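Today's session is about reading a structure prediction critically. Students often jump straight to the picture, but the first step is always the sequence itself: look for stretches that repeat, for charged clusters, for runs of hydrophobic residues. Only then move on to the predicted structure, which in these notes is written as discrete structure tokens rather than atom positions. Here is the chain we will use throughout the hour.
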Amino acid sequence: MNPNPHDRGPSAFRTPLQVPVPDLELLLPPDHDQNRVLRAKIREWCSTEGFAGELSDDVVLVASELFSNAVRATVGEEPITAELERHANGALVRMMNEGPGFDPDSLPAPDPARGGGRGIWVAKALGTVAVAQRKTKTIVTVLVH
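Below is the predicted structure for this chain, in token form.
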């Protein structure tokens, strides 16, 4: 009998899998009034992490804009998940909600006459943006630097 080339034996499992865990995770109802709670918690987190001034303001602004977008796009009453992680170059802000995905590069520029529509534009101006769709969840991740 030939040995299975994919069987590496017990030694293959000695290195533990590293799973990133957010430094801060918030589950908030899809309600615009919760944006105040989100901003307060993120300011507190930024202070704890030693982020001050412009970086702290940018992280709060990006998270607030992403939360507002998620509230508008959420289908149903599932909570919106906000996650923050310290990163070597700043902070990683992740917002997850039940709803349709979108292509951040195909969004029109904000129109001041229309109001709204500036969340992803602000995020792109302050960091690097990635959008993913997982089943029914939209996940927007921004590295604010």
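Discussion point for the tutorial: The beta strands are 24-28, 80-87, 90-98, 127-134, 137-144.
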